[in-house]
Amino acid sequence: xxxxxxxxxxxxxxxxxxxxxxxxxxxxxxxxxxxxxxxxxxxxxxxxxxxxxxxxxxxxxxxxxxxxxxxxxxxxxxxxxxxxxxxxxxxxxxxxxxxxxxxxxxxx
Length: 108
Known about the structure:
Elements: E1 2-3, E2 6-13, E3 18-23, E4 31-34, H1 37-58, H2 76-88, H3 93-105
Antiparallel strand pairs: 1-2, 2-3, 3-4
């Protein structure tokens, strides 16, 4: 679910028979609950507004910033194939993996 350009992950909690939404990529927690999707959108907007108000009051950037660096562990056979692919195309391993991820996530 996307509310005001903020993405939320939605799950159903059978123990309480409600949907639970949680905004992702924020510098803090902002979750919300409702029994229907329409109510969930309303509750999500309220939760997001409260979160953004607090961020403004405390002069905090609401969205997390990402460095672009992370460690990745893969099977040695995959590592070997990635290095072979990169070398055969005259690219670095990092460039090759970045291009594969971009393509997979349709980021271009």
